[in-house]
Amino acid sequence: MMNWNEEYDVLVVGSGGGGVTGAYTAAREGLTVNLVEATDKFGGTTAYSGGGGVWFPCNPALQRAGTDDTIEDALEYYHAVVGDRTPRQLQDTYVRGGGPLIEYLEQDENLKFEMLPWPDYFGKAPKARLDGQRHTMPTPFPVSRAPELREVVRGPLDSERLGTPQPDDFFIGGRALIARFLKAIEKYPNAKVSLNSPLVELVVEEGAVVGGIVERDGKRVAIRARRGVLLAAGGFEANDELRQKYGVPGHARDTMGPGANLGKAHQAAIAVGADIDLMDQAWWSPGLTHPDGRSAFALWFTGGIFVNQDGARFVNESAPYDRLGRDVIAQMEQGTVTLPYWMIYDDKEGSRPPVQAPNVSMTETDKYVDAGLWHTADTLEALAEKIGVPSESLVVTVARFNNMVESGVDEDFGRGDEAYDRAFSGGESPLVAIEHGPFHAAAFGISDLGTKGGLRTDTAARVLDTSDNPIPGLYAAGNTMAAPSGTVYPGGGNPIGTSMLFSHLAVQNIISERT
Q1: pLDDT tens string 408-465
Q2: pTM (2 decimals)?
Q3: Which long-range contacts (CB under 8 A, 24 or more apart) does 287-290 make?
C-alpha cells in the first residue's frame, strides 16, 4: 500500500495552456487540485508564443468582432485538411468545443480574449477562412496586477536566450494567457501550484491510476489523486533519444519547446499501458540559424528566396510555417535539400535578413559573419562561391525569380497564391525582386514548436490503452496527447487550443464520473 505524502482530487502535470486550464476548471468546480510543474517557471511552450492564440471558431470574442462564420463551415474546413488520419469524433470535439470554453472562461474577470485575425493555413481548402476570423488571443495583462508573477512565468525567449530584461509593463501573448490563469487560480484556496516538481511515475491500484510520484528537493513525493491525473506536460521535443527512437526529424537544440520537455509524462503513461500515435510528428517551421548554433522558428519574410545546395529555389517561402517546414523535411529525406539551406536577398533592407519575426532576436551582425552563417558579396557569382553552390545555377535561379516578380505570378511554387502568403505584405504580392547588390545569404535550418505525437485519447481526454479502452483515472491534453489535427496544422492556435480544450474536458469528465 502506498504511503501518500499529499492528497487531492486532481493532479495536473504541466503548467502550459492546458495545465492551467485544467487546474482552473477543477478549482472553480470545487475540486481540490495540485498543478505540478517540472521547472522553476510556469508556462511551458505556451509562454513562448508571441500571440498565445487559439483556433476556436465562433467563440464569443469573435462574435463580438462581428464574425459571420459558422461551426458547420469550420467543421467542413477542418475535416478537409485533416482527413481521416484521426478519429472524426475527436476532430468534431475540438472544432465544436472552443466556443463554449471561451464563454465559460470569460465569466471570470481575469480571463479575457479578443480576435487576432490570422488566416487559416490551407487557403484553398473548402470553407477556409481567409480573413482570420477563427483566431483568438488573450488580451494583454498588466504586470502591475500580478507583479509576483513577473519572474516565475516562462519567457520571453529573448530573456532566456539573450539575457534581455523582463518586460515591466504587460504580459503579452502566451505569457498573458499563463499570467491570467495563475491570477484566476490564486483566488481558490482548494488549488495549489508547485514548481520544481517533475513527474517521474504514475501509481496504479487495481487497474486505475490513483496518483503520481514527483521529485521535489531531491526527494520522491507521492501525491494521491482521488479523482484523476491529467497529463498536460508538453511534448518530448527536447529529448534527442526519444526523437531518434520515434523518427522525429531535427534536433532538440532547434526546438522552441522548453528544455524540460523530455517526454517524462509520455513515458510514465506508456509504462502503465497507454497507447500512442503520431509519435513521428511535430509542429514544424523554418529556422533562422543563430551564432549559438540553434535554428529558431522564423516567419514574416519581406523578401528573399530559399535555395538548396544546388543553388536552386525549392519551396514557397511565404507558405504557412508548418507546411514550409514539412516541404523542407520531405526534400531533406529525398536528398534534394541539405542543411543549411540559404535565404538569398539583396541590399534593400541592408545586410540583415528580411525576417521580421525571428522569435529569437538577431544579435550583432559580426557574430553571424564570424560563425559562417551570413555572407555578402558584390555579385551573385561571388556569393555562390562563398556559400558553396554552383554560381551559374544561382544566377539563373535569381533571374527566373525576378522575371516571375515582374509578371506577378510564381509559376514554380505558387508564392502569393493563398491568403496566408500575403498576410505579412498587406494583402499585396510577397514577391520581391533580388536586383540591387551587394547580395546576401543567411543560413537556415529546420525548427519546431514541439512534438505533437502522444497518448491516444477519446473525446473526454481519457487516455486509451492498446485495446482501445480508457485507463481509469488517466487523462491527457495538448502535446502530451496525440493531436486531433493529425499530420497537418490547420490554423494558428491549434496547439494551445487543443491543450486548453481537452484539459477542460478532462476535468468535466472527472466531475461527471462521480456525480
Answers
A1: 999 999 999 999 999 999 999 999 999 989 999 999 999 999 999 999 999 999 999 9
A2: 0.97
A3: 287/254, 287/444, 287/445, 287/446, 287/447, 288/353, 288/355, 288/358, 288/360, 288/362, 288/442, 288/444, 289/340, 289/373, 289/442, 289/443, 289/444, 289/445, 290/360, 290/362, 290/363, 290/368, 290/373
